Amino acid sequence: MNAVTRSAPTSSVAAGTAPETAVTRLVIGVLSLTGLAVGLLAALVDAEVLRALGLLLFCTLGIGSAPWQRDARIDLSTRLAYSVVTSLGVWTIPSVLMVATQVWHPLAVFAVVATITAPLHVLGIQRSLEAGAGVRVQGWLADAAADPRLRTALRHPPTWAVAAAGGLLCLIAAMTHRHIDPGFGGYLTQIGVVWYVGLALVLLSIARGRHSPEWALALSVVTLLLVLTLTPSLVYDGTRSQSAFKHVDLIEQIMTTGALDAVMDIYDVFPGFFTAVAWLSAAMGVDDPNLLAIFWPPLIGLLRLAVLRHLFGHLLAGSWQRWVAVTLAVLVDSIGADYFSPQSVGFVLGIAAFGLALAPGAPAARQAVLFVAGCTVAMTHQLSPFVIAGVLVVLAVLRQVRPWHTCLLVLLPALGWVAANWSVISGFVSLDGLGSISNFRPPETDEMSGLDRMPIVTLSVVGLVTGILLVGAFALAALVRGRRDLRTWALACCPGVGLALVAANPYGQEAIFRAALFGIPWLAALAARWFSADSPRRSLLLPVLITLSATFLVSSSGLDGLTVTRPADVAAVRYAMAHGGDDYAIVSIGIGDLPFTLRPGLVRVGSWAVDVQSEEAVALQADARVQWLTQQLWDGYLLPTDRTREAVYALWSPSQSYYQAAYGLQRPESFAEFRDALERSPFWDVAFARDGTVMFQFDGARYAADAS
Fold first, then answer.
1. Nearest-angstrom CA–CA distance, 264 and 200
2. Per-residue pLDDT reduced to its tens digit, 625-639
């Protein structure tokens, strides 16, 4: 047997004893009840921020951990994995049922959940104290105070202190660079050298922390995650993705009406994410879920770290190697699927399912949690359940998962949900492209004649691919070294499941990104095997982490100018929603994503639908282009029966100006001239203008009078 396999112990739900887990249960119980108490007291005195933070802590940690507080055998990694799945399940399953039955009472459900979970934490605290948790904590404090190494540590800071210092520098830099207007390069070109020094210190603490206790390693990696995800949340005024607004808007619809009614039925049949966040927002007392959307990447990122550590605990030997794998998984994932979306939850549940399935034995609790994960992800995302089940099938075939039918705990809920909603889902299923090589091609945008893409577009793609290839190269080296080990081959085969699904259906040309997303953890696990704590190869880890950080930052933030949601764009869309009546249209006069609603009433008119971005139209002078747009709308799009529409708007945004310049579609000055020409036109009035964003309203009556 390969040496790597012999030295890779797996954690187990039976690995702990009451004294060993007593402190863990005590800390979790105290934190959970403190969050609940702070949240409820803050609600009484209308302290909105404290209420939101306290109840977020309770809903995230307290609800999920409560059922497992009485079990002293569960180690910390497994306990956190159980807690993540249980929390997401409690957020999702009851809220889906409420929306399905049109009985929306989120606070009543929260009261029931809190009433059940709070006593469980009280009991857990009591049992942990009986097991000696208080004595152990007092002993640790006394030993630390008397230990002469404490003075030495103050003179020579340990790795955790280096990470903390780096994180503090990054936080200071972010807080002193608020309200950045994203452009090409995003915050990377504006935040200053202090932030980069802080990031370097965090990376150093991870690379040099092989002799550190696991809590110190965890602190370093958590700090890295927060540096990478919390910084954009602090420096920008909007979310990292334009698509986040439509999700926010659907959640607001649930919060105000208790129902989900999207113009695309696929959102209605996979409502889990939207109902869950609507319930969470109501429990926290948050009226604007956009605040959750902005800070969603660090929140879902922390849950992802917990389940990644649990997964790697079954695959790798030693705490340092496991946290190295977590670090690699974080740094190579610049795909951006952690934004405010169903996919972000589906990915976390998928990783949790893999770790639960790989755990030894088949205790009823683990099977139950895995089934909850399967039910939750089935209600949340279309593709994720089948990727998860496919990976579990591969692991079962290669004798890594027992019993073999474990995959059914995920597959059966997914198939049942699809069957129940087949009338809608069938419209999105097609086998026409089965096996086509074009399925693996990402979305393409062709440049206009005489224009070229900006280098940052190429750099962002190169950054993503380079990061994956670099980790893939180390994974290949580990595969060669462990080629006689069946588990090594099993890990290498798991990324192929996503590729197989891409071959079956391109999922709107985005499936290749989903396949890469679900393949990253397995590549990271293999690559981490190459970096043994006792091998000279570990000296390469720091330059590798620095390289991956560079590729991550360029890939994830290089195009922030066109991906970050601008509050003015959101306000413009909300203006149209408020003033457009029951039937209105928004014409996107540029190319690129913008925040849009999926509620009934809006008709989205893409720029290509009115030929405003055709080469023929772009070649015209600005005033002639406006005439072209108006005529195309009147004659080609707005049929006589549609001309009574209450409102037709045209949205001009700096985000689209950045997009068109980046992809060689139109020069910024040409797009600005088009805006100015719209302002001069007698048939278009400025209805809304803020921070560079302009919403024009079409005067159909005036145009009809002029045409006659």
1. 45
2. 888 888 878 876 665
